[in-house]
C-alpha cells in the first residue's frame, strides 16, 4: 500500500472512532437583554448602606430584573418585589421604619406579557441572592430551573425555614458557572452581602459584556469607594467580591450594571426596549 493511502486510511479510522455527539449548526449565545422594572421605593435613612456617611439622608432605590434571550431559550435574572405589591396603594410597609418601602409600578407578569413571553416559557432563572426584593416572584415560574449557590440555598431563613421552595427545580452551584457552555452567560460567585450571593456576566453581540452585580454593591459610589453596608454578612468576602468584579470588568471590558442604583437605571433603556 502506498504511504499516502495508508495515511488516509489511518486518518479515516481516527475520524470514525470519534463518536459524533453534537453538530453545532448555528452560533449559540445571548441575543438580547431586557431591563424590567421590578420595584421602586424610598428609604428614610440610607446610612446603613453607607456606614459613617449620609446619616438621616433619604434615598430612592430601584429594584431590577433582567430577561435574557439566549439561542436556547429565556433566562430570567432576579424576580424582584412580589407582584402583589402592585395592588398595595402605600407599598409594602416594612416593620423596620428605616428599611425600604417597596412599590411595584408595574408587575413582572405585565412586562412579560407586553413582550409576548409566557411565564411557562422561561426555562432557566437565577437569583443574585435570597433576599425578598430579589425572590418575590420565583414561584411564578415553578418549571424554571433555578441557579443558586449551595451556600445561599442552605442558609437557614427566618424560623429556620428554607429560603426556596424545596420542590422548585434547582441547580446548586459551588462557584462560577458558564450556564450554556458557550461563554455568553456566566454566573460569578460574589459572596459577602449574603453567604451565597452571585453576579451574572452577560456577553451581548453588539453591546458587549455587561456585569449584573446584584447587591454585591448598591450604588456606583459604594463600588468606587469600596463602601460596605452594615447588614452584609462578611466584610472580607464583600471586599474580595468587589475586587473580583473590578478584575472581571477590566478583563472583559464590561459595563457594571447595579441592581438598586436609581441614578444609573434612570439612564438605561427599559423593556420593551432592549440591549442586543
Ligand atoms: Zn436587594
What do you see in this structure?
This protein has a six-stranded mixed β-sheet with strand order 1-2-3-4-5-6. A five-stranded mixed β-sheet has the order 7-8-9-10-11, covered by helices on one side. It has helices at residues 3-17, 108-114, 132-135, 150-153, 220-225, 235-252, 262-265; strands spanning 30-43, 59-70, 73-77, 122-126, 145-149, 170-173, 177-178, 185-189, 198-204, 208-212, 255-257. The protein starts with a helix and ends in an 11-residue tail after the last helix. It contains seven helices and eleven strands. It has 276 residues and is an alpha/beta fold. Helices cover 21% and strands 24% of the residues. The longest helix is centred in the C-terminal third of the chain and has 18 residues, at 235-252. The model has no long low-confidence stretch (mean pLDDT 93). Strand 4, helix 3 (132-135) and strand 5 form a beta-alpha-beta unit. Bound molecules: zinc ion. Zinc ion is lined by residues 131, 133-134, 215, 260.
Compute the number of helices: 7
**Overall pLDDT score:** 93
Bound small molecules, deduplicated: zinc ion
Q: In order across it, which strands form the biggest sheet?
A: 1-2-3-4-5-6
Low-confidence stretches: none
Distance between the termini: 56 Å
Percent of residues in beta strands? 15-25%
User: What's the count of strands?
Assistant: 11
Structural class: alpha/beta
**How much helical structure, as a percent, in the residues?**
10-25%
Largest sheet: 6 strands, mixed
> What's the Cα radius of gyration?
22 Å
Taken from the alpha-carbon principal axes, the silhouette is globular
Instruction: Tell me the series of helices and strands, N- to C-terminal.
Output: HEEEHEHEHEEEEEHHEH
Task: Give the assembly state of these chains.
Answer: single chain
